[in-house]
Design a protein that fits this description.
Length: about 350
């Protein structure tokens, strides 16, 4: 037993913050802001160079997303149609039965997806809920798909249970810069997010973490989000960049839409600062059109959500995506292993 009284033990996040202060940052904020400020063509050229040094430039990962538990969430995330407190028309549902999830996973695999992401509108999973998710992970993995889950905050031991079930990735977004976080979400804080990411890492699950842009943040705040991600040791293996999908009834509905060149810049900066990560062109593709998506691929995005629905909002049809990728000469992986995706920074 420890000889120290419990209250003298610094929290995991306090220790991580001290380590972060002591260690030189891989990417000081000013350097990230300077990348954002480059002329557009210079920024894209640099991003494409970094991309080609680390990936096959034509390779794209297709991940299918499924909402395994929709709506009724107690949190107050200002962007989210699934928060119970906003009147968005999303109908709350219980966790889906295993067979429904498995038939969707089989269909996803048949249409070319290599990764299956299961999302739940929870603040955190109860241990009983986790048993269902563990079963889903085991069975989806047995189909030969990579598995990813996003279930909210994880408590002690929960990440390990998911790892033991065969979970490859856990998605848990930082969503925005630390300065803006409290304006968007009040029911939890940044430290809670970092603590869960620490547990995921500690259990040996690959980290999928990114955020949403277009929430009224400044360019410096976008750089602040990238700085948080890029300075993690190691940085996430997978970085979703979502453009806010504005849903009527949420507090962020009506926010001035982001200039989409700024979205492309954010992808490019993520690629340069996290060279081996899968940078995921995530929510908001339906509103982008083919040309902006092609620029995102040029900027280094190499993963998309594939299938006509995200969690509760729309996504381009699979057929439209196949046509776009064919037009651009891009191809998908048909194996689940990709050694170069492993982050060893
Ligand atoms: N409840 C869990 C959580 O918050 O971590 C998991 C599900 S939550 C819906 C997963 C992510 O979806 C959020 O972190 C956020 O980045 C993204 N998201 C939610 N609503 C969005 C919207 N309207 N536009 C873009 N991204 C959104
Ligand atoms: C992520 O970063 N984006 C996805 C996935 N991770 C779970 C979710 C996007 C949700 C968009 C709003 C909706 O469809 O409800
Ligand atoms: Fe709940 Fe996640 Fe939506 Fe926030 S983002 S309201 S935690 S489902």
């Amino acid at each position: 037993m420890s000889s120290h009284p419990v209250e003298f033990h610094p929290s995991r996040s306090a220790v991580l913050a001290q380590v972060a202060q002591a260690a030189p940052q891989a990417w000081p904020l000013a350097d990230i802001v300077a990348l954002f400020n480059l002329p557009f063509n210079d920024l894209l050229f640099r991003a494409q160079q970094v991309h080609r040094e680390n990936f096959d430039a034509q390779d794209i990962e297709l991940a299918t997303l499924m909402s395994i538990k929709t709506g009724g969430c107690p949190e107050d995330c200002g962007y989210c149609p699934q928060a119970a407190r906003y009147d968005t028309g999303v109908v709350a549902q219980k966790i889906l039965p295993l067979d429904e999830v498995l038939s969707a996973a089989r269909m996803a695999k048949e249409s070319g997806a290599t990764r299956f992401c299961m999302g739940a509108a929870w603040r955190e999973p109860k241990d009983r809920d986790l048993e269902h998710v563990e079963e889903m992970v085991r069975e989806v993995k047995a189909l030969g798909l990579e598995t990813c889950a996003t279930l909210g905050m994880l408590g002690e031991g929960q990440a390990q249970r998911l790892k033991d079930a065969g979970l490859d990735y856990y998605n848990h977004n930082l969503d925005t810069s630390p300065e803006l976080y409290g304006d968007i979400i009040t029911t939890r804080d940044y430290e809670n997010r970092l603590d869960t990411l620490g547990r995921v890492r500690g259990a040996g699950i690959k980290v999928c973490s990114g955020g949403i842009i277009g929430m009224g943040e400044s360019r410096e705040q976008r750089a602040g989000l990238v700085a948080q991600l890029a300075n993690m040791l190691p940085y996430p293996e997978s970085v979703p960049v979502n453009n806010l999908v504005q849903v009527k009834g949420t507090p962020l509905y009506g926010t001035d839409p982001l200039d989409l060149f700024e979205f492309v810049r954010t992808i490019a900066v993520a690629r340069i600062t996290m060279p081996k990560a899968r940078v995921r062109l995530s929510a908001g593709r339906r509103e982008m059109g083919d040309a902006i998506q092609a620029l995102c691929f040029l900027a280094g995005a190499n993963s998309i959500f594939y299938g006509d629905k995200l969690l509760t909002t729309g996504n381009p049809d699979a057929e439209a995506d196949r046509a776009l990728l064919a037009k651009l000469g891009m191809h998908t992986r048909h194996t689940v292993s990709d050694a170069r995706c492993d982050v060893t920074n």
